[in-house]
Structures are given as C-alpha cells and as structure tokens.
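Homework help board

Subject: predicted structure for assignment chain

Our instructor gave us this sequence and asked us to write out the predicted structure in token form, then describe one feature. I got the tokens but I'm not sure how to describe them. Can anyone check?
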Amino acid sequence: TCPAGWSFRGKNIKAEIGGYAHIQNATLKFGVVPFIWLPYLIVPLKSTRQTGLLIPTIDYSQIGGFAFSQSFFWAISRSNDFTLTEKIYQKRGLKTFGNYRYVLKEGSRGNLDFATLKDRVFADEDRLNKFRDWDRKGMKTDRWFIKYDHFYQMPENWTNSVEINMASDLQYPRDFPRETLNHGDAAMDNRVSLSKNSSISHFDIDASYYVNLLHANPITPNDAAVNRFPQIRYSLATQRYKSFIF
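My token output:
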C-alpha cells in the first residue's frame, strides 16, 4: 500500500537484497503507530517463500473472549506448504490449527484444513448438556473439524475430485463459521467423484455423504440423513445425422 500499511524500523539494520535484514531494537508499526518492540529481528528480503513465524493476530468474540494466535509457516517445496497455528482463547482454551496446500500440476491442487480444541465454554452450555445423560459442567469437551478439497486432472480427460467437510458436533459450524464455511446450510456435504468427458459423451461415478445439521441435539447420530451410494451415469451429447434419400 502507499503509504505503507505496516513497516519495521530499527536502530541498526544490516540488509542484503536476496538475503536477510538483521534489525536491532526493531519496532513493528501499523501506519505510524508503534505496535511491537523486539530486541532483535531477522526479516527475509527474498521473493521466494520462506519458512518462519508469521505476524501474530489478536481478535475478540463475545463467547470466546480475547484470543491470541501465532502461526508457523513451513515452505516444504515450490508446490506444497504447511501452516501450524496455536490460538489461545480467554474462555475456550487452546486450539491447534493446521493448513496443508499442494499443487500436483497446473490445474490440479488440494487444500486440507483441520483444528482441535478442548472447549471449556461449550461444555458448560445448556444447548449441549440438556441432551447428555449427566451434567458435565466444568469439564472440557473435545471439538474438531476437518475440511479437504482436492481436484486432479488425469490423462485421457479423466478428472477426480474430493470434498470433505466434517465436524465433531452440529453446533461447530455455528460457533466457527470461518472454518467449515457452511453456517446456515441444512447439511455438511462430503463427496467423491470420478469423471471422463469427450466431445460426444460424459461418464461419472459419484458418491455423497451428508451430515444432517437440522437437529437441536448437537451430538445426535446421523441416522436421519439421506446419502447417495455410488451412482454411475453415462450420457451422449445431441448429434445431428445426415438424411439420405434413395
């Protein structure tokens, strides 16, 4: 941005383009406002991705209270990376996030997100405890989610895609809508498909598993969901044929 949205300043700076900047008495500023002071800091001055700590973040929610998170980015290779984040909530507790991204080739990629949390707040709420056999207030409740998206273009016009979106309880999308990205939906969709297209035909094998979110009990079994077993379809495109008169 111009002017700079954030910047580092220091008393003594030794920098090498394509290498690193070594800063003594470093200060991180947002605009013109000093935010964090560090006695020593190393900043990469490279165009390629670098393994290291990311800028910490602070946020607030009414249920979770203040939260502080710190992420570590691992540049595994040019085609994949992994980010590990530890987030401490004032009320909920410690939560661990993971994000793995990869590119198999041009047009083929995947993304995996997951998190786990021993939630102190959810364990004390009536929306959960009124459905449990005995009162567990004051105890921690294990909560988690996993979201995976995969798309792969194979030889001879074959395509494989996978979509997985699962959570420990039906209230998870409501409490953490930025993670599952399906708050307000009637179900969590999970799907696997294999397809092949040509100039005149389409063939696919498709299976889906739905988690029914329309229950008051957040830990109810998924017996009422309607799922789709592997479905096989084959279709031909409309074609025009010449007519012959004898």
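Reply (TA_rk): Your tokens look well-formed. For the description, you could write something like this. The chain has a mean pLDDT of 91. That's the kind of observation they're looking for.
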